């Protein structure tokens, strides 16, 4: 006969190859603190409702404490035959506490037990990521404050387009990571729901107090439907989706840092402490950190697709396929946390090449739109002004000049409306500071955005404290 907890119905022992194939202990052992945390709360609830006695509960609490200490100190022996972390802890508890350990699983199934463990784990992980995102956004705002005087080309299609403040460019990433922060906060609410008490799928006949268990585990809500409680993995999918969008933002920022640190751009220099060299080319200084972050984004996207594919055809309620939810989840949590951590360390060490950035703004016809706007102010319809400036750009290219290097005589070939005041209109500082529309790149507007962000971050700090 099998010695499995469910072995009563079986007449043959589980084949060793099946034990190895179905075992998840190499992955889900990571859940042990949460499994014990959930078991302690379940035990206390069983005692409160009279399902087990207070003395039995005390023995179980003591035994679970011993198991946790063994796991904490790597003194625990793992065995594929016990399949998962739940059965490992239960088996060891039986050895330490005796037959009373067999009462702990009363009114509980591994179905609602694992759902609880994953929610507890992800609640902690999402909370840490939310806090890291607050710190990253603070760092971006500090960099924007520090470098307000630096101008740079803004790009579309990776072609020079219009001049912007470097701080304005940085604050674009503040907005992206703020949306990530908001998404994770919203996701956190749907993670933070307690499934325990759903048992296998139909609820339980025992007089359990789910609200009491939820209070012990600091859950504000309990799962409303027992079948959904054990079958729901939407909260994991949502977390992976939030992480994927966040990694898109990291990948885009990484791409820019890689480009900006190239010899062709030379806008920034990454710290030696966050760069690597070549095994064959002594001169090389490679932006490996941004490149690895850019590469790791693909792994996170794959985790999301893996999870969606695993769930898409599952009937209610629990199916063993769901055992495969932890590997993509753990992988994404680790990658995103690592990327946040490394960027928090790397960003303050980046050297900004102010002169190179400012010089790059003076070439490439970045003032073409402003010349068109100048003509509109003089009374020319914008489309006519656009065509007029296009011809001026063609002429300047032929003569190897920038628009502001053309003489008044040359400029008047394209419109009699152009006068001497045009040159003041085409200075980089004036081009930037005229863009005072909400969200624009004018110094005044960017300062307002920075001040607004600083106020937001104070409030977000308070929310982060609550999540802790």
General description of the model:
There is one protein chain. 60% of the residues lie in helices and 4% in strands. By secondary structure, it is mostly helical. The protein has three domains: 14-106, Fumarase C, Chain B, domain 1 (Orthogonal Bundle), CATH 1.10.275; 111-143 and 166-200 and 224-353, Fumarase/aspartase (Central domain) (Fumarase C, Chain A, domain 2, Up-down Bundle), CATH 1.20.200; 368-425, Fumarase/aspartase (C-terminal domain) (Ribonucleotide Reductase Protein R1, domain 1, Orthogonal Bundle). Strands 1-2 form a two-stranded antiparallel ribbon. Strand 1 (151-156) and strand 2 (159-165) form a beta hairpin. It is elongated, with a radius of gyration of 31 Å. The mean pLDDT is 94.
Layout of secondary structure:
Blueprint (H helix, E strand, L loop, with lengths): L15 H7 L2 H4 L3 H17 L5 H19 L12 H13 L12 H37 L4 E6 L2 E7 H26 L1 E2 L15 H7 L4 E2 L3 H6 L2 H27 L7 E2 L18 H24 L14 H21 L4 E2 L1 H7 L7 H10 L4 H17 L9 H5 L9 H4 L2 H6 L9 H25 L1
Parallel strand pairs: 3-4
Antiparallel strand pairs: 1-2, 5-6
Helix pairs in contact: 3-4, 3-6, 3-8, 4-5, 6-7, 6-12, 6-19, 7-10, 7-19, 10-11, 10-12, 11-12, 14-15
Specify the overall morphology. elongated
Distance between the termini: 47 Å
Order of helices and strands: HHHHHHEEHEHEHHEHHEHHHHHHH
Look at the structure and give the mean pLDDT.
94
Return the CATH class of the largest domain.
Mainly Alpha
Largest sheet: 2 strands, antiparallel
CATH superfamily name of the largest domain?
Answer: Fumarase/aspartase (Central domain)
User: Please, how many domains?
Assistant: 3
Give unreliable regions as ranges. Answer: none
Rg over CA atoms, rounded to whole Å, is 31 Å
CATH topology of the largest domain: Fumarase C, Chain A, domain 2
Bin the strand percentage. under 5%
* Structure summary, number of beta strands: 6
Q: What's the architecture of the largest domain, going by CATH?
A: Up-down Bundle
Number of helices: 19
Share of residues in helices: 55-70%
């Amino acid at each position: 006969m099998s010695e499995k907890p469910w072995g009563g119905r079986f007449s043959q022992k589980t084949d060793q190859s099946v034990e190895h194939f179905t075992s998840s202990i190499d992955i889900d052992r990571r859940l042990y603190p949460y499994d014990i945390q959930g078991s302690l709360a379940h035990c206390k609830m069983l005692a409160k409702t009279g399902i087990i006695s207070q003395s039995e509960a005390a023995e179980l609490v003591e035994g679970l404490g011993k198991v946790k200490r063994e796991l904490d100190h790597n003194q625990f022996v793992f065995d594929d035959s016990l399949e998962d972390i739940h059965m490992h802890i239960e088996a060891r508890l039986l050895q330490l506490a005796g037959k009373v350990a067999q009462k702990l699983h009363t009114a509980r199934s591994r179905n609602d037990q694992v759902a609880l463990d994953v929610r507890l784990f992800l609640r902690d992980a999402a909370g840490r990521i939310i806090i890291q995102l607050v710190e990253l956004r603070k760092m971006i705002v500090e960099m924007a404050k520090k470098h307000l005087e630096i101008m740079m080309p803004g790009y579309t299609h990776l072609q020079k387009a219009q001049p912007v403040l470097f701080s304005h460019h940085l604050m674009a990433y503040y907005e992206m990571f703020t949306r990530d922060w908001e998404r994770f906060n919203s996701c956190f609410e749907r993670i933070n729901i307690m499934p325990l008490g759903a048992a296998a799928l139909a609820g339980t006949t025992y007089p359990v107090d789910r609200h009491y268990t939820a209070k012990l585990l600091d859950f504000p809500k309990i799962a409303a439907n027992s079948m959904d409680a054990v079958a729901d993995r939407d909260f994991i999918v949502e977390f992976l989706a939030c992480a994927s969008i966040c990694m898109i933002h990291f990948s885009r920022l990484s791409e820019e840092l890689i480009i900006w640190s190239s010899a062709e751009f030379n806008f920034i220099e990454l710290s030696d402490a966050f760069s690597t060299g070549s095994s064959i080319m002594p001169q090389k200084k490679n932006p490996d950190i941004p490149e690895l972050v850019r590469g790791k984004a693909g792994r996170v996207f794959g985790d999301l697709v893996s999870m969606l594919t695993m769930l898409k055809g599952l009937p209610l309620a629990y199916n063993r396929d769901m055992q495969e939810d932890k590997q993509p989840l753990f992988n994404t949590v680790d990658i995103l946390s690592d990327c946040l951590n490394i960027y928090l360390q790397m960003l303050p060490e980046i050297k900004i090449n102010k002169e190179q950035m400012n010089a790059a703004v003076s070439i490439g016809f970045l003032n073409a739109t402003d010349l068109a706007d100048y003509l509109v102010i003089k009374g020319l319809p914008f489309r006519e002004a656009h065509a007029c400036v296009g011809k001026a750009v063609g002429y300047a290219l032929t003569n190897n000049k920038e628009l502001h290097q053309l003489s008044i005589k040359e400029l008047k070939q394209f419109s009699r409306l152009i006068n001497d005041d045009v040159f003041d209109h085409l200075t980089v500082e004036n081009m930037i500071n005229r863009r005072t529309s909400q969200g624009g790149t004018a110094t005044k507007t960017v300062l307002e955005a920075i001040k607004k962000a600083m106020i937001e971050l104070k409030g977000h700090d308070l929310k982060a404290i609550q999540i802790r």
